[in-house]
Amino acid sequence: MQQDIIRRMTAADLMHIMRIEETNHPYPWSEAIMSDCFKDNYVSYVYIQDDEIIGYIIQTIAADESNILNVCVDYKFRKNGIAEKLMFEALNYCKSNGIHTVFLEVRSSNMPAINLYNKCAFVEVGVRNGYYPAKNGREDAIVMALEILD
Fold it and tell me: How far is CA 75 from its chain centroid?
């Protein structure tokens, strides 16, 4: 029987997180950048299925704001609602801890992620031109925000 668990990410998860990051992103974060995500102002979660980490979400917290930096689910497990469950966990943390606004950036071409964020009630608040590296130069980022009501 399949057992799914969402828990806080720890430094012991780094090797597993890097495997997912490197095989699922055309421009993955470095291990040094990922290691920074274990500092105090980060709240991150891993999604575990049958004792295997298959996804994660990384967010920063500052005052009453959060910035979701990275949401990734291993390509073999996509389209099963895992990213949505990770988003729910992160947003529930925000709501429980007095965070009022959550921001994120998403590649303008990443329609599955944009659809997920829209489903989670994020709205577009701006564009960062040429924010992401891309195969043929740079790609814009759509900036999205969610206001969390008390």
Answer: 15
Cα separation, 19 vs 24, in Å, equals 9
Token pair, residue 28, equals 């993955």
Of the ranges 59-63, 133-137, 146-150, which is most confident? 59-63
Helix (H) or strand (E) holding 62: strand 52-62
Query: pTM above the 0.85 mark?
Result: yes
Report the alpha-carbon distance of residue 129 to residue 5 in Å, rounded: 37
How many other CB atoms sit within 10 Å of the CB of residue 138? 12
Q: Considering only CA atoms, give the Rg of the chain.
A: 15
pLDDT at 109 over 80: yes
Largest CA distance in the chain: 46
Kindly state the percentage of the chain with pLDDT values over 90.
79
**What value, to the nearest 5°, has the Cα angle with vertex 110 and ends 108 and 114?**
85
**Rounded Cα–Cα distance for residues 11 and 38 (Å):** 6
